[in-house]
Design goal:
The protein has one helix at residues 26-29, and strands spanning 4-7, 10-13, 18-24, 33-39, 46-52, 57-59, 67-72, 77-82, 91-102, 105-111, 115-120. It is mostly beta strands.
Length: 121
């Protein structure tokens, strides 16, 4: 089975923290990179953070210093620790896996169902 299952979303007050988890099947987790995207109503989907199989990380400028992505290879799990949350972080967060780079751009072809994160002001 090829699966990505997210958990950990919810409602939190501004300044609070949430930890998102993504449990992946081995065939997906073994891809080159795992990432977290988010999409708010009326907004374009954006890459929040990513981590390669070698442990290199990427963060969107808006979340640097607040979010941390990590992976547990033994458990086939990737997490996103979100601290100092702001109302503008409110979105549906998606776990994704990439195994292709086309024309220099990484493509994420596998997606979870998404988990809602709502940050109240």
């Amino acid at each position: 089975q090829v699966q990505l299952v997210e958990s950990g979303g919810g409602l939190v007050q501004a300044g609070g923290s949430l930890r998102l988890s993504c449990a992946a099947s081995g065939s997906i987790f073994s891809t080159n990179a795992m990432g977290w995207y988010r999409q708010a109503p009326g907004k374009q989907r954006e890459l929040v953070a990513a981590i390669t199989s070698g442990g290199s990380t990427y963060y969107a400028e808006s979340v640097k210093g607040r979010f941390t992505i990590a992976r547990d290879n033994a458990k086939n799990t990737v997490t996103l620790q979100m601290n100092s949350l702001k109302p503008e972080d409110t979105a549906v967060y998606y776990c994704a896996a990439s195994n292709r780079i086309v024309s220099g751009t990484r493509k994420y072809g596998y997606w979870g169902q998404g988990t809602q994160v709502t940050v109240s002001s």
